[in-house]
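Question (not urgent): is this output format expected?
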Amino acid sequence: MTRSPCLIHRIQPDDTALMAGLMDVFGEAFEDRETYGAHRPDEAYWRSLLGGDSFIALAALDGDRVVGGLAAYELKKFEQRRSEIYIYDLAVAETHRRRGIASALIEALKKIGRERGAWVIFVQADHGDDPAIALYTGLGAREDVLHFDIEV
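Got this back:
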């Protein structure tokens, strides 16, 4: 595997252009440009989200171009004084895959988790998404669970 010279950058409240680039990568990688592009929040919303203490966004940069990234949430637990970090989305542009970028993003998130005193990072993968399953299998223990979407 060739290592990428990409820089992993934590997206800050004033980095709304990077957030837009991350959304472009997600839309392309997940083949869902509608969700990630049609109704984007305004910059004030992104600044508020990025400035809060529960949302974490990381971008992998090749020069000034976003080529990968992740969005995660810190979930503060009620039963013990600890938190868990949930990777909500993680993607790398097709042109930059197999270069260790996803692993570098997770390593950067692990550092943030340690700084925050998080207990664990967790993520889900869809059946048939073999590259994601292989990545996550190499990084942690697998739990087979069922996921349910409950409409509001």
